[in-house]
Amino acid sequence: MLVDCGMMQGEDSDTVNRAPFAFNPSEIDYLFITHAHMDHSGLVPRLVKEGFHGKIVTTSATADLAEIMLAV
User: Fold this and answer.
1) 13-18 long-range CB contacts below 8 Å, 24 or more apart?
2) 32 and 2 Cβ atoms separated by less than 8 Å
3) How many domains does the structure of the chain reveal?
4) If you average pLDDT over every residue of the chain, what do you get?
5) Are the C-beta atoms of 71 and 42 separated by less than 8 Å?
6) Which range marks the domain in which residue 45 is found?
7) For 30, what's the count of Cα atoms within 13 Å in the CB-facing half-sphere?
């Protein structure tokens, strides 16, 4: 289980956001997104690209916003 998967903001954020995850994304069964700010959901596309196939749990409003924000 993982709660949020966001991007770091501010100084050195690029280095932190590109660092390897400290876990294997394919081993995560559930991702809970608390709300649709980039610091809480911005790395979800990368998480999926690196192997996450679990279920994403969030509110319908957050899902609607995240779909727009994270369109790739």
Assistant:
1) 17/42, 17/43
2) yes
3) 1
4) 94
5) no
6) 2-69
7) 6
Q: Which residues of 30-61 are buried (b: 16+ CB within 10 A; e: fewer)?
A: ebebeebbeebbbbbebbbeeebebebebeee
CB 35 within 8 Å of CB 10:
no
Residue 71: predicted pLDDT: 82
Tens-place pLDDT, residues 25-57:
999 999 999 998 999 999 999 999 999 999 999
From CA 52, how far away is CA 55, in angstroms rounded?
9
Per-residue tokens: 38: 């980039």
Q: How far is CA 2 from CA 10, 11, 12, 25, 69, in A?
A: 23, 25, 23, 10, 20
Q: What is the pLDDT of residue 72?
A: 64
